[in-house]
Write a structure and sequence with these properties.
Two copies of one chain form a homodimer. Chain A is built from twelve helices and eight strands. The first copy, chain A, is an alpha/beta fold. An eight-stranded parallel barrel of chain A has the order 1-2-3-4-5-6-7-8, surrounded by five helices. The longest helix of chain A has 17 residues. The interface between A and B is large, with 38 and 38 residues.
Chain lengths: 314, 314
């Protein structure tokens, strides 16, 4: 697939940080930054710009806050055209500071929201846009939303100064035909906006659903190295780069960072296709029960877990 | 997805046997047989009916030969409506014996072939059909075949007494649009035949490509428990059963056999999404170089492996 407009965003540090409370070493983050720079990836997401009042610094690593100075420290001296994004939860904004974009290493602010917080999201988008940032709106958990409510949000976003709106399959529950349906729905209600897709891998569909999004004109796609991310993780960046034929992409630095960092890391922290996440995916549920199950002695009692979850839904 | 005609074939023992020279214990094979019987799966493939002249018995386990008596011994006393299939390579037929179907526990013989051996495949299909077996033809490695040659084979098969013809993505190289193209091509040239899909998971596309096949009217789909199979393995049976809405399917016995057998087994023998298989997949190559690489000290030197393979292709 070659389409010049397609932009690839790597969310290794941001979504991966949800597994380890954002305690990645500077060496690792810098290593990823260097590799992505050499690979021609378009954006790298470093983490969240979270409130220290809501999330006390003694419990989280630096990438929960993504201070401009911290980002500068880690990327210092690396030759790169990689743009930098951070994510903010629209419903957890408190005292966080945002410098004007031209005084910050950050290029793009991605606003994550649920449908019910769309007004807060738009308020934050307006603020970030006024400061000169590129903006996205990532509407989460849409596999659980009622369509009229979702459409109402899209209509509000159509009038907002947001550059990109993402279809986010938070629960890894969607099949290709549902991705097609949603991307077309977004396109219908968001004339002139760029669309993105962010997929989770509960059912090993993150990559194929991302392709499905691309087929139906989504031009922003998220991936992460070896799929790292909370629970089942994301679309694998290496697969995306293998698929996209834009000659600016180079898979070799990605393969190198996989062997140097991600494979050893996978032995220490867990993510990927694991049966409890598959179960929450097929049942269209938040992975939190599966995450809890994986931390206990019954982590491989799948039949029991399936019964617990499906009984709770009956 | 609910379509009554869809039949699910489990190839755990057959394709999984390619990893360990078919040395599965009777206990495991019987455990799988019981679980699949309870889950409403349609067919279970036990292995190959291979020639003992070509493959000496001191090097392989029982499931390389699948003698009728051996199958009977393992399934004895289990209440089941599960049909039984075995596979035969069309180009490796020697002295193997096939009893008449009504004297055998086997219901279906699946004939694996390359395009160039299609005449041998049809000869074997004729023989098996005359003995009363259901038959399939699984044309392998089609991502490398020239289309006129493939079409020629399909035209021959259209006239043969074969029940089902499979689209087989041997190298895990195909994307959804290519699966769609091939299934439609098969449909055009095989009027009245049932189509099947057998996908490999090099690029985490085995499940989504199987769904793609189903969307375009393939009614025989292959899966294996936790995707077990040579190299990257197959479409996960548990995902298929989560997707298919026919109420005859029950996922719970499958989850139980995963936790009891497959998860412990995965610690002893290796299969699944691993970067060397991803690399052979994106390059549309046989996985043999990746399999060899995974057995040596450089098994995680991905960048080097990519260079070796892509240089050999230049």
């Amino acid at each position: 697939m070659y389409r010049e407009q397609i932009k690839v965003l790597d969310c290794t540090i941001r979504d991966g940080g949800l597994i380890n409370n954002h305690y990645f070493t500077d060496e690792f983050v810098r290593g990823v930054y260097k590799a992505l720079s050499k690979s021609g990836i378009d954006y790298m997401e470093f983490g969240y710009r979270s409130s220290r009042e809501l999330f006390p610094p003694e419990e989280f690593g630096a990438w929960k806050y993504c201070d401009d100075d911290k980002i500068r420290e880690v990327i210092d001296g690396v030759e790169s055209e990689l743009k930098i994004s951070i994510m903010v939860d629209a419903y957890r904004v408190k005292e966080q500071h945002f410098a004007p974009a031209d005084e910050s290493p950050v290029d793009m602010i991605r606003v994550a929201t649920y449908v019910k917080y769309i007004d807060s999201a738009i308020e934050l988008i307006n603020k970030c846009r006024d400061l000169g940032y590129e903006t996205t709106c990532n509407i989460m958990a849409i596999s659980k939303e009622r369509e009229p409510d979702l459409v109402e949000s899209l209509k509000q976003l159509a009038k907002a100064p947001v550059d990109i709106v993402y279809v986010v399959d938070s629960f890894g529950a969607l099949f290709c035909e549902q991705i097609e349906y949603l991307v077309k729905l977004y396109k219908e209600h968001l004339p002139g906006k760029t669309l993105g897709v962010h997929c989770h891998n509960n059912q090993q569909l993150a990559f194929s659903n991302t392709i499905e999004g691309i087929i139906h004109d989504a031009n922003f796609v998220d991936g992460s190295l070896y799929g790292i991310g909370r629970g089942p993780g994301n679309c694998c960046l290496e697969l995306l780069v293998g698929f996209l034929k834009n000659p600016k992409f180079n898979i070799k630095p990605i393969l190198k960072v996989l062997q140097d960092y991600l494979i050893p890391m996978r032995k220490e922290i867990e993510w990927g296709y694991l049966i409890p996440y598959m179960i929450t995916g097929i049942l269209n549920e938040h992975p939190r029960a599966a995450i809890a199950k994986r931390k206990g002695p019954d982590k491989d009692k799948y039949a029991q877990f399936y019964e617990e979850i499906s009984e709770a839904l009956d």
